[in-house]
């Protein structure tokens, strides 16, 4: 505690704040939070500023988790927040900055240990603040409150509740949403407003307007926003009675605001006013509009009121705002880059895959070049799995509906399953949405002894999910997909080592694929959602504890995603940063105590009695479709040599060099390389350019000189001209890079 008091950052105030919050929270938490915080403070001795920051971060995590868990009433929440809000917001940023310093890592480990000791949901949430790889570097701490999914489709009530947990950036963006509404109100008298939250990378406001907005409207709205920002209008909060608020919004013909208030249980509602605009809002906001950074309006989309297609379609105007022009510019640049790398565009340009109206939406066809890449990935992962004792199987893509009733998929997953096919025999068959039940049957093929375990059954398993047509996109969101799937059946004692093995397999694969920015998400159920998640408290507790234990043993930094679990159990998702710096789940590991129970799985233990095995579901490369989409964007189509559909293009300068070109190609093919000869009657430069556009790693130009010397003139797709290389040397180097699955295109001079 002494160290804490020494904090240069206003120690008494700081101590007072957390002590107060802890004392409010403590009665509901089994452990003594205040005591635990003090203990940690005593241990985190030598850097008082960091200690203070870490502890405050910890406290907010706990408080945040506690709100969620107990669905705190507004009065207490506001009481707490009023006390915490002012300090909390900048805190997230300072903690983050502090934690980035390399010497702080050890402290984080201790902070995590503290959180574990507290046994709170919020505990592991220190993960992102602490260690999370974050490509964009701009996301603040993710608290449980806003690590939830589906930010775009959350309920109005949920939305309102979220704003209280806004980071400074989100708060500024939400303030920009108010200013945008002000501008719209000014330009479109009679506009009706719904909600205007901060979202990832920006904000929006849902509005009903006299006419549809077009991109041409955006500059005028932006212009007025800038005027409002320049005017530095203060954001003034107040509390109104329901009656007063209802009367106010009814009088101004704001039916959406009226509906929101009618659904609020509270006697009082929050109001925020800035300049000429008044809104129903819980806040928080920046102090005045002058604190809003550079803004840019992005686009207009349609959105049903409350996401309900039977309610009015509103216009959703998206904008973004950043603390500095440089950040805004960088964001716009990232969007541009993402557009350039869009796998749908590159997939078409490089002829990797196609979609056909005749075949159907969400059912991609892999073209020869895309299929080559996929096959190489499959061969790679199958090889790694074989080396780790996985046994590969083939199972059919459909099965009796009964199988999925037993598994629980029908109960929890029906919305995304294709409807049953009625057979004449009265049987009902469905396309499988997952492969687990088939693999379970293989496990049950005969009596298993503890000596047989672990049994690792793997398959590139094709499955079908009825995704909404509006959500289908290229290869990333499809209706037929092949999962790099496996199910490990093991004893409870083997569960931990098996889990660790899978994590290591994932890490190894990522290294080969050149993924550097990834993080681990512990995906838990939403305890309030009994429909989506199996209602079995003991199972969830047990499997969550087991997962946390495994993560701690590996000392993996991780963060918590509430509501991201599978229906049968919690999982570890490996989140890889995409080109936009956003996380996508690529790999996943799930501990499952549910399906072994549902299918009465058994093994005969050492004691001669039957026991229940544990199941681990795992996917390393995710589905081949999603993985391919991700890889295309990750590499911008520039596949490493070992994955490039065509590795070398032989380009004869004139027709008379065709014979030698074919000899070169033969030599490369014999070495196992994929090669094409461009025999078209085009100019050499045009052929080189075309090969570059096709992202072919090597262009081998051959003319008289090369034919005479048994060489090639080598150019790389990066436009680097290596020049004359003996053919034998080219074959040797390219074969080595290919066999090593190297990320290197050609050795630099030093290493050559
Ligand atoms: Zn607001
Ligand atoms: Zn499974």
Count of DSSP helices?
A: 26
Q: How many β-strands, per DSSP?
A: 28
Terminal CA distance: 58 Å
Report the CATH architecture of the largest domain.
Answer: 2-Layer Sandwich
Gyration radius, to the nearest Å? 29 Å
Overall pLDDT confidence:
80
**Biggest sheet, in brief?**
8 strands, mixed
Q: Any idea of the CATH topology of the largest domain? A: BirA Bifunctional Protein, domain 2
Return residue spans where pLDDT drops below 50 for at least 5 consecutive residues: 1-34, 43-50, 65-155
**CATH superfamily grouping of the largest domain:** Bira Bifunctional Protein, Domain 2
Sequence of strands across the biggest β-sheet: 11-15-16-23-20-19-17-18
Domain count: 4
- The shape is globular
Can you characterise this structure?
This protein is an alpha+beta fold and 752 residues long. The chain has 4 domains: 2-146, no CATH class; 168-340, Threonyl-tRNA Synthetase, Chain A, domain 2; 380-635, Bira Bifunctional Protein, Domain 2 (BirA Bifunctional Protein, domain 2, 2-Layer Sandwich), CATH 3.30.930; 648-739, Anticodon-binding domain (Rossmann fold, 3-Layer(aba) Sandwich), CATH 3.40.50. It is built from 26 helices and 28 strands. The strands form 7 sheets. It has an 8-stranded mixed beta sheet, sandwiched between helices. Strand 2 (198-199) and strand 3 (202-208) form a beta hairpin. The two termini are 58 Å apart. Residues 174, 178, 272, 279, 281, 283, 285 line the site of one zinc ion.
